[in-house]
Structure formats: structure tokens, C-alpha cells
Amino acid sequence: MSGAFRIPGAGRLSQPKTARFSFDGQSYPGIEGDTLASALLANGVHLVGRSFKYHRPRGFLSAGAEEPNALVEIRRDAARRTPNVRATVQELYDGLAAQSQNRWPSLSFDVGAVNDIASPLFSAGFYYKTFMWPKAAWKNLYEPKIRAAAGLGVAPDQPDPDHYSARFAHCDVLVLGGGAAGIAAALAAAETGARVILADEQAEFGGSLRFESGASIDGEDGFGWAQAATARLKDMDNVRVLSRTTAFGYYAQNFVGLVERVSDHLQNPGRDLPRERLWQVRAKRVVLATGAIERHMVFADNDRPGIMLASAARTYLNHYGVAVGRNVGVYTANDSAYAAAIDLKKAGVNVAAIVDLRDNPTGPVIDEARALGIEINFGRAVIRAGGKLRVSSMTVQPKNGGGERTIPVDAILMSAGWTPSVHLFSQSRGKVAFNDETKRFVPGIYAQDCVSVGACNGTDGLSATIDEAYAAGAKAAKDAGAKAAKGTKPKVDASESWSRGMLGAAPGAGPDTTVKAFVDFQNDVTAKDIRQAVHEGMRSIEHVKRFTTNGMATDQGKTSNMHGLAIAAETLGKPIPQVGLTTFRAPYTPVTFGSIVGHARGPLFDPTRKTAIHPWAEAQGAVFEDVGQWKRAWYFPKGGEDIHAAVDRECVAVRKTAGLFDASTLGKIEVVGPDAAKFMELLYTNPWEKLEPGRCRYGIMLREDGFIYDDGVVGRLAPDRFHVTTTTGGAPRVMNHMEDYLQTEFPHLDVWLTSTTEQWAVIAVQGPKSRDIIAPLVEGIDMSDEALPHMSVREGKICGVPTRLFRMSFSGERGFEVNVPADYGQAVWEALWAEGQKHGAVAYGTEAMHVLRAEKGYIIVGQDTDGTVTPNDAGLDWAVGKKKTDFVGIRGMARPDLVAKGRKQLVGLKTRDPKVVLEEGAQIVADPKQAIPMTMIGHVTSSYWSENCGRSIALALVAGGRDRMGETLYVPMPNGTIEVEVTGMVFFDEKGERLNG
Amino acid sequence: MLLIRCPYCEEERPELEFRNAGEAHIARSANIAGESDDDFEKFFFIRSNPKGIIHERWRHMHGCARFFNAVRDTVSDKFIITYKAGEPKPAKLPKISNEVVAK
Ligand SMILES: [Zn+2]
Predict the structure, then answer these.
(1) What is the spatial distance between Cα A455 and Cα A462, in angstroms, rounded to a whole number?
(2) Is the ipTM of this complex over 0.90?
(3) Which candidate from A251, A448, A705 shows the least CB-CB separation from B44?
(4) Are residues A446 and A303 in the same domain?
(5) Nearest to residue A344, comparing CAs of A332, A370, A326?
(6) What is the tens place of the pLDDT at every residue in A39-49?
(7) When you count CB atoms within 10 A of the terminal residue's CB, does the N or C end of chain A come out lower?
């Protein structure tokens, strides 16, 4: 037997396969097909959690996704620890291990429950009030304590070993919700040949047919019909049926996000199976068949374990064969709870009494209950529940006051009516309308191509639902372009029907009381809290929501929003529609980060770009750094060198003999066409028309605001062809910037732009021996200083492959940059390396490159500039064409503030103590004795130890810097103030003789 | 995710393929160097930021790479029409009601 509360012959778990599971370490029997909730209930376990704020004992409220209380941790192994799993949704498998949350030391004795006694401290808005004084205590005392005591579950502390997949899908008709309405709509649409996707969050289709024992369709019982119809749909090629799939978000233009739980219900999920799959569906038409959610009754201590929604008790009985008690009470304000009482009574459970708030309701279910001998009390209220870890009684009183009577029960089934699930409709930006007669918000004005059918549309009764859904499914398919329907509408033989109910607090929990009548179970919000929020001045329902946190928990107020709204409206003395509904936000139910991230994690988070020479550098033991998406060789340590020793050695060797550097990541753009020079004139500050083919120029690109945007050496290969280089990180945005101007501002220019960054591998050979290393491998290029002076470019061959050979230098030494097609990059590098070895050349990385350029005062855009630096600020006025009448930035550069005195200018800094290396980003002051906050006049942009200079060097942006040459400034640091002298930016070979050395 | 019609590709494509490029129909002066501070301020800094209809530039970045113009409603996010760069503002906009229909 799988639990003492399993009723033989009841439920649908027809071929029982036992599944043993544990809860808080204790082992229990269950049946495959159970949820964790039904299996625990079968064993008589109701107490499963402690509440968020007051740590009150809690049980199961529902049998579905709306569950606010029964959140547990499911533990597969140390890394697969999932907190806040709704036990009502988690399917059972053999070996499942679950733990209760939010309690210490144990579920039945929880120290935190003192919060329940101290509850006046924790009333509505308590975060905003109680803990605001003294201010420092929030950070040091209150917040850590609150965080430790509150919170739901414990986050896993290991990386998630599971994988998650993602799919895009397109369809004509997307049907969300697989109850009677959704299935009927899907059938109608599918029969036209339209491409249909039908999704439901449950493992099995049927929705409320799971518990509606009175429904019969096409000669079958309701649930059986749902299975047969779904099977038919699954067999159709034009239909995709997704179970265990929740539509969590409805976005623009019928774009819907769904999460399919692929393997959480499996005992041993194959490693090839994803845990979840994200579906991003674009549908021509959407049919919303999301049903309705039953509301609880709001009365004192309505949260005791054993008190649950009537439909939940019915589901546990009719689907899982589990009785939620042996002696149940019923508290209702509508008919649907009668059906639960009848089903339980027929299954042999004692129904102690039905308490009905209504005065003299009539109808077949009431007659049937009476005929079964169930005691019915009209016009009465349950004013309180007894018991603590489990409900033990209900106290009944005439609703207008009078004598009390306490009835012993071990469960209370309640129903205040049904709330249409308009979440997705509302997310689609549709506007709900309040039906005053039925007291429901139903879809009003649509904003997208969708339609609501069945209970979520406020349609009552199975026949009406199927009529409406079938017609809507057919119409959606037709509107999406499908042929006319040719199927047959399912025929309803018998059905249940109910509506109405009540909103707000029940008698006994009214404004004159101080009882704990819960509205929002998950956030522990009572009717009193909502009234208090209104009394304290909250008028908008959005304010009431934030002040009380009603509806803000992970269940998004599925059971609480309408009650909260009604209580606020009553307190405000306004009709409900005037108070308005809070916004429904995605996700409908919590979505894992894993499903949203999908495969984009670890190495797949972002593309990794590697140069053609990367494998060689790797083999040499290079240490790499990330530069944007690129992996760049940072330094090449030899024999246990640290970064400092390696960089010092590399820097010295480059200036002494030569060094090879992989410069392939430099952005490269080919600017070609009859108007190429004109275009360059407009995009760069420099003059280009007169640059002779074969020569190069250092170019500066500005934005229209006059600030430096990018820089790089540009070679003119022919009158109509420029080889433009950009910074490594700047290539895409420079390309975009150029395209933008070419396409929209200067479309009359006859120019083509091509990104060639990855076409060329670039090998920089720098140092006095550089020509000796390159020359033996080059064909067709005269390498003499006369034929190939500094800042020139030639096309020819190296190692037999085509090259664009640049004579240029980013080190201040005689230097070359050898461009070869990327496929030959590594081979040419190796040939150059072999030549270099004869001269004692080294390979150097980006760190040495940075030091060498800083020794020469060459700037790096983005390091020494920050988007607020003009060419003049950077000392680059010489690169601005004085005679030019137009280029991007020419006007911005002349703005009053950009030509004002006292702007920050780039200068060099030398520390008084040459051994001290400044910290990049450190602030600079003129007066170290000034009181804090001191006047900061600039900051350090680049700073290195220079082995070649035998001292530290730095570049800095300093207000009025060029007028401060020789001045002493100060860099205050935590360990003391550093004295520095303002200098020029060139620290090595000031005359530039080594370019031809 | 929005669908955006590229007027060059003549196709609706997902938003992921596009990049917004700011307000449209702000012409750069042919004599920009001679512009007054006020005129340059208007050209470079001032944007309309309307609630409702906006004309803006988009680029079909991961498609044909062309810049084009669009009319969009900033309240509903809906694209009302797209047209090629250089074309004038559409004189008449197609009727796209924001709140569709009561069904
Ligand atoms: Zn395009």
C-alpha cells in the first residue's frame, strides 16, 4: 500500500508502480504518477513548510502551479539542489529526495516561529519603518539578520551541471492551456491543416477534467476524452503537443516564451537530455485557454496545514486516489466545493459539515449533498480554525454574529470562487474589464492577435466552453490562412457548472478584528495588513501591493490578488474597478536561469577570437589576456619568469636587437573607390588627398562631438585604395561609424568599405635588427631607407606569399608590420622567427608592447583617452588638417568648453622615487594638505616600470597639464602620498632617431 | 521580440538582426564648420523623445547592413512603417490602431 490515505479504487494511477521517496530524511512509499504533494498526502503528511515572515507551519493549498506554501528543496546530488520547487508540481520518481525549507532546527519546531508571536513588529510596511533607524544598523544588523531569517530556500553553491536547450518555433495557431477548451481549440485548428502547437504545464492534458468527475464528452468521461483527443493531436503531422510546458511570457507580435521541463520528473535523466528546453514561439494566432484558479476563504488562521482549496482536495481524490483527511469540513461561498464534498463522501470520507456563507442557495449539487446526508449550514461563516501543525477544528458562527460552535475536523476544503487566469492576456498588453455581475476581471480590449476561450474568458460550463473554444480554434486557423474546418465538434454529454463566489475577507476577519486571516500565504500578508496600508495613506493598488508585498512573491498572487484588491476597495470605499488591478508581469511561474541562458555559458558565453599565430604562442607557453573577444599573448615567460621579469626582458631585447609581435587583432578596413580620399578627408581629422600612394599616415577619427573616437595608421595603396587600421576593440564600431556616414550623410560618395580584420595576419617586427630579419624573406620590395622610408607601405611577397609590408613603428624602433593572408600567418611567423633567432630576437606580448609605446608617449585610445579627450587635449593638434573645411567633429571640437583654458591634457609623470610605480586610475591633486574632499585635477592613465629607462613612467590627464611642466603634483594613496613631477610624454629617445636606427 | 520590416530586404526579420541608430531626419549641415553654437546644439544634442510617433533610424546590422528609417509608436512599441534612408517622412501613415479590437 502506498500510504494510509490512499483509497482503493479511487484515482487514475491505474498500474501502480511503487516509487519510494524521502522527505526530511524519512522514507515514504508513493506511486509513479504521483506528485510529491499527492504522495505526501497519501501518507498523511500535511506539514511541509514554514512561512516566509512568521514561520507559521504550512501545508498544501492547491494541487497545481498556483501553490504558495508547499515549496521544498529537491536534491539529486550536491550540485543538483533545486530550492523552491512546488511539491504540487514536482512529479514523483523512485528515489526522489525532498527537504523542507525555511525552518530551523526542524519543521515541527522552528525557532523562527517567534516571529509569529512578535508579529506586530512585522506588520505591513515593516521593512520601510521598523528597520530604518538608526541608519547604520540597517547595513550592519537588520539586513543580515533579516536576510538570514527570511528568504525562500537556499541557493545551490555549486555550478549547475545540467544543460538546457533552446528552440525557436513558428506556427499558425499556438494554443496555451490543455484543458477542455485548449484541446477543443487545438482540434478545430488542427483539422484545417494549420500548423498548431498545444502546450500545457501539467504532465497530462485535461486541466480541470482531472477533478471534474461529472464531465462527459463524446461518450467518455472528461479526462478519458482529453487523453484520447490529445493522442489524436499527437498523431497529426501538423501538430506539436508539449506537456510539462509552461507559457511564462507573452511578448510583442505574438512572441511567446515557453519552458518545457524535460527531465525533472525522471529518476535517471540521460546525460544527453536537457533539463529544460526554452521554446521561443512566433505564432500567427494565439488561443489562450489558461483556465481559472480557485480562491481560498479569508478567515482567521486559514493557513493551518490541512486547509486547502476544494478543487485541490478533489484532484487528490479523483486523480491520485488520495483522501486529504478522514473527517473534513467544507467552507464555501459557491457551488464548486459541494462537488468536492460529494466526491469525498462517496469515497467513504466523513464530511463533518458544509458551511456556506450564502443564505439560501439552491441547485442540483446542494440537493445531492443533502441527499447524501451531509450537514449543510447556510448563512454561516467559519470564523477560525483550530490546531497548529495541522488543523483540528473549525469554529462556526452565523455570519451576522451569534453563538459559536466548534466542529472537529482534520481538513477544511474551501472555495471563495474562481479567478479567470488572465495573466498571459494581460502580458500581451490586453486590457481586462470588470464584470460587475460575476465580480471577475475578464479579457476586454485585445492588443494582439489572440483570443481567450473557456474559464479564462469567464465562460462558465463545459458545453459553452467547448462551443466557444472550437469556434475560436477554427477561426484562428482560418485567420492564419488555413482552409475551412472540416472536423466535428466534441459533444458534451454531461458537465458541471458554477460561478460566482465572494471576494475579500469573510465574516470574522472584518475591519473590526485583528485576526491573522491570510490573503497572500507566500508573503504572509493578512487582511489586516491590507487595511493598514490603506489607513497609512496608500491609495493606489500598486502602492498597497508594494507596501504590503501582497502578490509579490514567486506565486505572483495567483490566489491572493483579487482578495487583496477587494479588501483595499472596501477600505477605500470605492468600487473594485476604480481601484484597478496590479500589472501582471512575466514570468507566469518562476523560470530557471538555466533555461534562459541555455547553452550560452562557460566558453560559449561569448565567441572567442584567436589569431592565426595563436597556436604558436600557446606552444611557446605564452600567457594570454582577453581583449574584447580576442585572446592575445600577454607575455612569454621563460624559465620560471614572472610577468615583470618576462616583460623587462622582452622590452630590453626589442630595443637591443628585435622582437616579433602578433598584431593580427588590429582592426582593418579597406576603403576603396573613386571618392575614397574624399571620404577619408571627411572621416579623419588629417588631410589625405595629398598623401602619396605607398605612404602611411597616423589618422585620428573623431565623433561629431569633437572627441577622439579611434586612431590608427592608414596606408594609401593606390589613389583609390586605403588600408585603414583601427584599435583592436574599436574595429566594429569604427566600421559602423563609417558605414553610417557613407550611407546616410555622404551617400553621393563612390566608396566601398570592407572589413578585412580577419583576412590579414599581422606580424610586427620591431627593433634595430628588424630589417635584417625580414629582408632575406622578401621578394620584390626594395628594403632600403630611401625606397622604404618610415611610414610607407609596399606590396610584394614574403616567403612566396603576397604581403602588404608596412614600415611603421609602435615601439619607436625601426619597425615593420608584415600583413599576410591569415592562412599563411603562422607559417610566415615561423619563418620570421627562425630568421630572428639568428639575431637574438624575442617574441613579445601585449604588456611589453604597452610599455614600449608608453616609453615613446604613443597613446592608446580608450586607455589614455576616455571619450572626453580632444586631439588638442592629447597633444595631437599636429594631426588635425588646419586647412580643412569639413570633417566629422570639426564643429564639435570648436565648442566653447572644448577650447576653454584649463582642460585636462595628457602629460608625462615621473615619480620622485623612480622605483615607485603609480597605479593606473589614481587621482592627482595639487595640494596634498587640502582637507578631504580634495580637489582632484586629473588621473593616471598609463603607468609602467620601464627597464629601458631604469625607472617608472606614467601618462596622465591633468588640468592645464602642459602649463605645469616641471611642477610637483601629488597622488594620494591609502599608504601615503606619492610625489610626482609633470614632464613631457616621451621618456625614451626624445629625438626619434631610433626609427632609422 | 519585435519583427521589423527591412525596406531593402523587403522582409520582416526579428529584432535581434537590427540596431537602433537614434532619431531620423536630422540632417548634418553642409557647412557644419560655420554653424552657430545654437544651431550645432540643436543638431547634435536636442532630440524630440516623443510619447507616440517617432521617426528613427535603424540598421539591418546582421542582414543587409543598410541604414533605414522607421516610424514607431513609443507607447505600443509598434512599427508603423519603414522606409529607405534618404526618403522623406511618409506623408500618410497606415492606420494601425494601438488597442486593436474588443473581441
Ligand atoms: Zn535588410
Answers:
(1) 9
(2) yes
(3) A705
(4) no
(5) A326
(6) 999 999 999 99
(7) N
